[in-house]
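[job 0412] stage=complex_fold ligand=magnesium ion status=START
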Amino acid sequence: MSIEKVKKTRNILFLGHQGSGKTSLVESLVSFINKTPKGSIERKNTVSDYTNEEKNRLSSCSLSVLTTEYKGHQLTFLDAPGNDNFVSDIISVLDMIKGAVLVIDAQRGIEVGTVKHYNLLKEHGVPTLIYLNKMDKEDINFNALLDEISTELGPEAVPFVYPLGKVEGFDGFINVINLKALKFEKNKMVEAEVHDDKMDKVTELNNVLAEKVALTSDELLEKFFEGTPLTKDEIRKGLHTAIISGELKPILVGSIKNDIAVETVLEMLINYIPDPTTLKPYKGKDEAGKEVTRKTDPNEPFSAYVFKTMFDQYKGVINVIKVCSGTLRVGDDIYVPSSQSKQRVGQMFSLFGERMDSITEAFAGQIVAITKLDDVYTGDTLCDVKQVTIYAPAKLPTPVYYKALKPKNPRDEEKLFSSLTKLKAEDPVLDVTRNVETKQLLIGGLSDSHLAFILEKINNIFSIDVDTFAPKIAYRETIKGTTTAPGRYIKQSGGSGFYGVVEMRFEPSGSDENVFAEEVFGGAVPKNYFPAVEKGFRESVQQGQLAGFPVVGMKAVLTDGKYHSVDSNEQAFRMAAILAYREAYMKCKPTLLEPVMKLTIYAHNEFTGNIMNDLNQRRARVQSIDERANHMQEIVALVPEAETLEYASTLRVLSQGSATFDREFDSYQEVPSYLIDGIIKTDSRLDNKDAK
Ligand SMILES: Nc1nc2c(ncn2[C@@H]2O[C@H](COP(=O)(O)OP(=O)(O)OP(=O)(O)O)[C@@H](O)[C@H]2O)c(=O)[nH]1
Ligand SMILES: [Mg+2]
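[job 0412] stage=complex_fold status=DONE, emitting C-alpha cells
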C-alpha cells in the first residue's frame, strides 16, 4: 500500500449545536461529489439520518459515517448528532480525528452546543473550520456575528470569506485571500465582480488575516512589520500551518438551502486539513504497560481503535474502527487486548450511512467497519498479534440520571435486561444494573430525554412496554446510644431442648462496620457459643427496626449469659442474640443514614449564582468553587442522593442547557431528624412494604 494513498485520506467530523445544519451540509457535500440527488431532513431521505428515531425526530441521534472519493482523495465524513444526549459518540472519536467543521446557524449565532463542541475540539487539538450556515435567513448581521464569535469562541476564529448580497439576499462570498467573489447564479457558483464598498471591508479582513498568519511565524512577522505585504501563497501556507496547530480557525459562510460554498468547503478540507502522514504518532501501551508509538503508515504494525459499536438485525455487531497504523486485510488474524483473544477478520466494509460496501483491505488513516468480532466494543483496541498496542479508551461522561424499570408484562423481564445490555453496547454511557438491595432494575443515562429515547428504542426494536419509577434510595440505619439487653431462648419441654441466655451491650462502633466483641467473665457463656451469638447479631443487623434498612456502625458486646450442659446449643444462642438485639434496638437511639453524592458541576460563571442558590435548597455542602478556562467554574458539592434524582433536568433549566455535571457516591450521612418520619412513611421496608 502506497503512502501516497494515506496522504490523500481525510476524516472530517461535523459538529455544532443541534439543528445547525450538519446533516444537511454533509448531504450537500456527498450529493455534489457523487452527482446524486440531494436528500433533505424534511423529506427524511438523507444518507446520514437513516434510522427511524432520526426520521421521527428530524434530528440525528447517532454518529453517521460516509466514505466517498473526491479528486483522488478518500474522504470520510462523520456527521455527529448535536443533541447532548449522544455526546459520547463525539467524545469517542475525538482523538481519532484530525479535521472538523463546526457548523453554526448564522441566524441563531453562538449557541450552547456551539461552545461545548468548540471547546471539545480545542481540548483534543482538532484542526477546525467554522461554517456559518443558513446565511439565506433573514436579519443576519455578519459583522455582529464575527464579534460574537470572537468573544464567545476566541480570537483564533478568523474570516476566510466575506458574504455577498444585501440583507435577505445572500448569494455568495468574497475570498479574503484572493479577493475574488463567487456568486450563486442559475444553480451554480460563478465568478462575480467585487464592488468598491465591499472591497474596503474585504481588504481590512485580508489585513487582519495576514497579521494573524504573520503572528504564527517569526519570518512572516518580520516581513509584515517591515510593511511588505504577504503574498497569497504565504498567507495560504501560514494559514495551513496555523489551522493544524490550532492557532487559527477560518470562518466560511454558506447556505445549504442553495448549495452555496459547498465546493469551497470541500477544497478547504483537502487543502487545509492535514495530510495524516504529517501528524504526530499515536501513543499507546504494550501489554507490559510500556509506551509504544504508531505512525500513520501502512507499513507499521497494525493497530486500530474502535470508536463506535452498532447492532444490525442481519449483520449483528458492527464495529467502526479507525486504523491508526499498518494495514488490515480480510483473513488476517488480529489480537484483541481487552479479551486477550486472537480473532480472524472475516468481513470488512466501507460505510456510506446505512449502506455497507464490502472491502478487502484497510490502511492507516482509514475509517472502516468490521463485523463478526466477539466481545469487541467501543473503546477497545485491535492490533497486530505479535506487536501489541493498547490505546487508552476515551473518557466518557458518567450517567447522572437514573430510573427504575419494570416491564408491563412480567414475562418480559429477562428480555428487557438483555435488550438493555445490547443498547448499552451501542451507547456506552448507559448504566444498566440490578440493585439486589432495592430489587430494582436501574438504568442510568445523561438526562430524562436520553432515557426516554432508550425506552422508545426498547419499544420500537424489542417490542417491550415498560413502566418507570423513581429509584429507591438505599438508606441505612445506625444507632447513636448504648443499651444493654437480655436475650433468653429457652425451650425445655421434653426431649432435647434449647437453652441460651445472653446479656448484650449494643453501642455505636465508631466506624461504618458492625463489630462483635465479648467481655464474658468466668465462662458464663462457653467460648464455643460465641460464634453462634455473633451469627445471631450479624443476621439481625441486616434489617434495622426503625424502617427495615440494613444497619451499619453497630457494636454488640456479649457481656454475660447462662448455659445448660444438656440443652444449650448453637441454635439457642443464635436465637438469644436475636432476641437481645430486638429488645435493645429501639432504645439505642436509632437513626437513618442516607447516601450522599459528590457532584462536580461545570458551569459558565453567569449561571453559578442560580446554581448555588438551588444547591442551598438541596441540603448541599459546597466544598469548592474554582475558576476554569473560558469563564467556566467548577463547583464541587456534597448532596444527598434523594435530592439529586431530578438534578440533571434542573441543572439544564438553571443554565439554559449549558452546564454539565459528574456524580459519584461519596459517603453515608445522617438524615436530619425532621425528614426521618417522612422517609419511614414512604420508604419503610418493614411490614413487607417491599420493592415494587
Ligand atoms: N434556511 C435554511 N435552512 C437550513 C439550511 N441548512 C439546514 N437547514 C434546515 O435546518 C434544519 C436542521 O438541519 P440538520 O441538517 O438536520 O441540522 P443538524 O445540525 O444535522 O441537526 P442535528 O442532527 O439535530 O444536530 C433542517 O430543517 C434543515 O432543512 C440552510 O442553509 N438554510
Ligand atoms: Mg444531524
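Confidence is low (pLDDT under 50) at residues 688-692.
[job 0412] exit 0
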